[in-house]
Amino acid sequence: MKELNRGTWNIRLVLLVIFAMSLLCELPSVQARRASKSKKRANEKSPKLLVIMLDGWRWDYYDRQKDELPAFSKFLQEGVQAKWVEPVFPSISYPSWTTISTGVYPEVHGILSNYMFDQHLQAVFDYKNNTSVSMEHWWQNAEPIWITATRHGRKALLNRWSRCDVPFDGIKPETCVSYDDVVDGTGSTVDAFRIAVESLQQDYDLVMIYIETIDLIGHEYGPDSPELMEAVRHIDSALSFLLGDMQKVNIDDKVNTIIIGDHGMKALGESAKIVYLNDYINVCDIYKIVGKGPIMTIEPYAQTKVKVYQALQYQEGFDVYLREEIPEDFHYKNGKLVLELLIVAHPNYYLSGFDSDKQIPENLVNASDKIEGGIHGYPDNITEMRTIFYAKGPGFKNGLIHPPIKMVDLYQIFTYLLDIPSRPNNGSWARVSEMFSSARETVSNFWMVTFSICLINLV
Ligand SMILES: *[C@@H]1O[C@H](CO)[C@@H](O)[C@H](O)[C@H]1NC(C)=O
Ligand SMILES: *[C@@H]1O[C@H](CO)[C@@H](O)[C@H](O)[C@H]1NC(C)=O
Ligand SMILES: *[C@@H]1O[C@H](CO)[C@@H](O)[C@H](O)[C@H]1NC(C)=O
Ligand SMILES: *[C@@H]1O[C@H](CO)[C@@H](O)[C@H](O)[C@H]1NC(C)=O
Ligand SMILES: *[C@@H]1O[C@H](CO)[C@@H](O)[C@H](O)[C@H]1NC(C)=O
Questions:
Q1: What is the pLDDT of residues 123-175, one digit of tens each?
Q2: Please, which domain of life does this record's source organism belong to (predicted)?
Q3: 206-211 and 156-159 strand pairing
């Protein structure tokens, strides 16, 4: 009994000595590491960041066709592939782009769809009208990454990227070619990638390139069409040029490159059905009706709200919600410009524009009767709405298949890689932290050192 006690005591003593010595040994090296890190921050900036957005690139486009996509395959062997990215509601371009750039849900950044109506200002947001979407008042609720970067002395260049032309809090990025729907979106991807390589050779720290073609072809021919698959092969060969050019000018292992999409695409096809709201509601009962396709919103008059709502309930092909009934997990209902009624089409249904001048956009009479090959905008539990996150570079692990992330996670990934502070956002660090290489190195270095010290102490 006594012997045992003494033995335990000896072991404790040994452990205590080991612990004290490892602390002593560890201390200078931690300090040195901190010092070298802050010295690095003062002298050199973090690696440059290139972000490429492929509009409408569904989460499974690569996997189902990977044998034909050597550039993507090489990229992913050297980098990280998230299984998918969960989109936002509605999974439509402008709300998604704004979540990508700000890290907050549509109810927070306030861009609720491609069409909106502000009753207070009597203003229309129509993505096909450059003047309307460029009004500053739509855009001041959440800070985009290129503004956060500019605030911290990082030079940003954006090519056809959303509303980079609109100042936020009076600040603009160094260079911006803004998105314009009028410009033919099928313009050369190779040209856009050339701009990327040129800017990365100059003193830009953040380069963001937008490519529209996959979305346009997905809409026209559908996500399962040979046209779409051919367009995907074209992007792959453009990516091969990009990676080759980056290698030629010796920046390929110095730049963090991220490829993302903004939403997926669901086939509509011949069996799709058009919903005409004129069949259910009377134009006299509504003040404004906004949008078309997967979602619409309605502002009825106060005294007709219940009547309009009841007329739309339990009909085939769509759900209707009073504003207060909108599911919390849409992260939509608290938006400042949310109207009284939200209509969400079921998959394979398409909401036609209302035949009235109260409809935004106007003059849609019969225009949507031509069914598109594919659409998006449905709730985020429709798997076809998912999109991609692929990344490689000094900041990322190699050949990692990563669990799914959310679109709200992207902003914090950008700020982390640029080594600048994030604004408040809806991303989760726990959901993304394992994809980075430096985090792994720091942690494993620490344990290596501690472990070696323990070994030395034992000997
Ligand atoms: C769109 O409008 C903004 C703001 O008025 C302007 O800076 C930009 O040049 C316009 N874009 C096009 C293509 O007209
Ligand atoms: C575009 O939007 C502006 C600003 O809201 C508006 O004044 C103009 O009439 C719109 N143009 C068209 C063609 O609807
Ligand atoms: C729209 O289509 C309906 C049904 O096909 C037709 O009856 C109506 O006349 C059309 N309206 C216009 C303005 O073309
Ligand atoms: C998606 O979510 C909506 C709203 O919560 C629900 O009504 C619908 O049944 C869900 N669809 C699927 C396929 O889970
Ligand atoms: C999203 O982030 C904003 C800004 O920090 C915050 O106000 C909001 O409550 C967050 N929403 C959720 C659902 O966490």
A1: 999 998 999 999 999 999 999 999 999 999 999 999 999 999 999 999 999 99
A2: Eukaryota
A3: parallel
From the list 138, 142, 119, the residue with the least C-alpha distance to 340 is: 119
Domains contained in the chain, number? 2
Say if CB 139 and CB 166 are below 8 A apart. yes
Domain containing residue 318: CATH number = 3.30.1360.180
Residues 298, 172 within the same domain: no
Please provide the DSSP assignment of 187-242 as one string. Answer: S-HHHHHHHHHHHHHTT-SEEEEEE-HHHHHHHHH-TTSHHHHHHHHHHHHHHHHH
| Residue closest to 243 by CA, chosen among 410, 69, 83 | 69
Q: Is residue 93 flagged as an active site residue?
A: yes
In this prediction, the residues of the chain whose per-residue pLDDT falls under 70 are 1-44, 181-187, 363-370, 439-459
pTM over 0.90: no
Q: Which amino acids bring their CB within 6 angstroms of ligand 5?
A: 104, 108, 331, 424-426
The range of the structural domain enclosing residue 169 comes to: 48-104+142-266+381-435
- For the Cβ of 366 lying below 6 angstroms from any atom of ligand 3, the answer is yes
- Please give the distance, rounded to the nearest whole angstrom, from the Cα atom of residue 366 to the centre of ligand 3: 6
Residue tagged active-site, from 46, 91, 93, 199? 93
∠ CA 159-48-163, rounded to 5°:
25
Indicate if ligand 3 lies below 6 Å from the C-beta of 367.
no
Q: How far is the CA of 369 from the centre of ligand 3 (A)?
A: 10
| Dist CA 453 CA 447 (whole Å) | 10
* Cα torsion through 268, 271, 272, 274, rounded to 10: 150
61, 265 Cβ separation under 8 angstroms = no
Q: Any bridge partners for residue 80, and if so which?
A: 391, 400
Cβ atoms of 46 and 254 closer than 8 Å: no
